[in-house]
């Protein structure tokens, strides 16, 4: 009987989890380039700022047939750092990574993080999305992105990377 109750509770828990329904909003996707130089010192964190990234909020809302006034909130959905070059490199030298967003009129807000990079990481880091409401940041014309990396050891190679960022704009609460 206890097993049956446990299975029912487990089934209800899993069934109540829902993904972002495309009919309840739309995605904002960005693919950005980031060069990370060799020789980064592990004693301190290192920062890169990418300025004036167009949000394309109005265009993406139009493509999804969603009036911009119906967007209730926007949150981080998928955040990846992908190593493109050289093919022999990896991210094993990174200890922690954080992504922040800001605009000229709004303070910096965290959009994702990875506190402990696994030892077996290769050429892709998937960050944990923060649950910060980013509507005010991404519904304007432009935003700035700040990348913070704390090396575990000195970075061995200069690498070409891409940041793959996906946000979801919700039209329902």
What does this entry look like structurally?
The structure is a single chain. With 173 residues, the protein is of the alpha+beta class. It has helices at 2-16, 57-63, 135-138; strands at residues 25-36, 46-54, 73-85, 94-102, 109-114, 124-129, 142-151, 159-170. Mean pLDDT is 90; it is low at 12-20. The longest helix has 15 residues, at 2-16. The protein has a single domain, classed as Jelly Rolls (Sandwich). The protein has an eight-stranded antiparallel beta sheet. The chain is elongated and about 50 Å long.
Key words describing this protein structure:
single chain; 173 residues; alpha+beta; Jelly Rolls; eight-stranded antiparallel beta sheet; 15% helix; elongated
| CATH topology title | Jelly Rolls
Tell me the distance between the termini: 37 Å
The Cα radius of gyration reads 19 Å
The strand count comes to: 8
Shape: elongated
Mean pLDDT: 90
The first-level CATH class name = Mainly Beta
**In terms of per-residue confidence, which ranges show pLDDT below 50 for 5 or more consecutive residues?**
12-20
Query: What order do the helices and strands follow?
Result: HEEHEEEEHEE
- Percent strand equals 35-45%
Helical residue percent band: 10-25%
Q: In CATH terms, what is the architecture?
A: Sandwich
Which class do the helix and strand fractions yield? alpha+beta
Main sheet overview: 8 strands, antiparallel
Count, helices: 3
What is the count of structural domains?
A: 1
Strand order, sheet with most strands: 1-8-3-6-5-4-7-2
């Amino acid at each position: 009987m206890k097993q049956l109750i446990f299975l029912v509770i487990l089934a209800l828990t899993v069934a109540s989890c829902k993904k972002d329904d495309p009919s309840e909003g739309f995605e904002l996707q960005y693919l950005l380039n980031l060069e990370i130089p060799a020789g980064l010192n592990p004693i301190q964190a290192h920062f890169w700022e990418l300025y004036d990234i167009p949000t394309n909020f109005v265009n993406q809302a139009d493509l999804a047939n969603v009036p911009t006034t119906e967007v209730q909130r926007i949150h981080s959905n998928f955040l990846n750092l992908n190593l493109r070059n050289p093919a022999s490199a990896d991210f094993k030298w990174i200890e922690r990574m954080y992504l922040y967003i800001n605009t000229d009129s709004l303070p910096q807000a965290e959009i994702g993080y990875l506190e402990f990079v696994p030892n077996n990481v290769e050429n892709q880091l998937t960050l944990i999305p923060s649950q910060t409401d980013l509507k005010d940041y991404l519904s304007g014309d432009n935003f700035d992105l700040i990348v913070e990396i704390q090396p575990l050891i000195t970075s061995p190679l200069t690498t070409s990377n891409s940041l793959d960022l996906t946000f979801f704009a919700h039209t329902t609460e």
